[in-house]
């Protein structure tokens, strides 16, 4: 925070490299289980520029989508899956509408919108979610777009506005997620920073725009309001995209949302999600 020269070099490089439209994130691939060297390089190039990439391989009927997603993760150097409570036994989560049961009580398994967040914001610091993969096996009948923003860019916008906003968000008590005492899903309260720097020097963000079940420190509350203003206002750095079957997101867990959608039970929306405790290698 005290090295303005180093920050200026990093800032200018990030802004100069940032994509200007969704098309700049997309990489056409033949098969995510067998990326060619050129396809792999193209994904890494986009991840280095924006912490995210969208692959498009087209539908492959009859394939084991979970095995394919896991193979893609391994090709990208991702091995430490975040086995959250609602994931399947293999650590990969099928995101589809549930009308009853434990999953039906949680927004990702409904047709309702999901506000801005990074995945795993309720995890303790030693289990931060640093990479996120999504694979679309079936799209909604209507709606369900994702909005995406590189957390590096948000950091820059905040720091350019007022470095004290960033200092507040890097404090160890900036954001508290109260514990959950539901049987089978119990977890303790989690206290930690919004922005932190990993052992490799990369920036990590832990955030949710939810107004309930989150407690901001007195110092961080104004900074949280600034985040909401930047995310909810018009911005050339926010991209919107509906994943088609055979498309997927490869990312270092940037900020993202999900719009509401209408599900067709005969052809349900189905995405597979894999979360990892490390970033994509070489990004």
TrEMBL record:
GO molecular function: 2-oxoglutarate-dependent dioxygenase activity
Gene3D superfamilies in alphabetical order: Clavaminate synthase-like
Coiled coil segments of this chain: none
Range of residues in the leader sequence: none
The protein's name in its UniProt record: Taurine catabolism dioxygenase
Short name of any one Pfam family annotated for the protein: TauD
Repressor in keyword set: no
Boundaries of every TauD/TfdA-like domain copy: 41-274
Keyword annotations of the record: Dioxygenase, Oxidoreductase
Keyword Oxidoreductase appears in the UniProt entry: yes
């Amino acid at each position: 925070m005290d090295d303005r020269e180093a920050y200026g070099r990093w800032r200018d490089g990030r802004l100069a490299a940032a994509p200007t439209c969704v098309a700049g994130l997309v990489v056409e691939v033949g098969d995510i289980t067998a990326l060619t060297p050129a396809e792999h390089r193209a994904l890494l190039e986009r991840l280095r520029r924006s912490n995210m990439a969208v692959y498009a391989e087209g539908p492959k009927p009859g394939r084991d989508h979970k095995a394919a997603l896991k193979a893609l993760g391994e090709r990208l150097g991702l091995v430490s899956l975040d086995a959250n409570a609602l994931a399947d036994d293999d650590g990969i989560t099928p995101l589809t509408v549930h009308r009853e049961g434990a999953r039906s009580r949680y927004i990702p398994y409904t047709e309702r919108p999901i506000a801005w967040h990074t995945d795993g914001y309720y995890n303790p610091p030693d289990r931060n979610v640093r990479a996120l993969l999504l694979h679309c096996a079936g799209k909604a009948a209507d709606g369900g777009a994702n909005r995406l923003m590189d957390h590096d860019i948000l950091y820059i916008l905040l720091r350019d506005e007022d470095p004290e906003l960033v200092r507040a968000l890097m404090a160890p008590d900036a954001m508290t997620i109260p514990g959950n005492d539901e049987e089978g899903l119990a977890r303790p309260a989690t206290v930690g920073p919004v922005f932190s720097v990993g052992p490799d020097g990369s920036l990590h963000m832990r955030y949710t725009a939810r107004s309930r079940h989150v407690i901001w420190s007195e110092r961080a509350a104004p900074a949280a309001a600034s985040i909401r203003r930047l995310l909810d206002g018009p911005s050339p750095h926010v991209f919107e995209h509906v994943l088609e079957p055979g498309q997927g997101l490869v990312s270092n867990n940037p900020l993202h949302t999900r719009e509401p959608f209408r599900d067709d039970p005969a052809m349900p929306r189905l995405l597979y999600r894999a979360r990892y405790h490390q970033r994509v290698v070489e990004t």
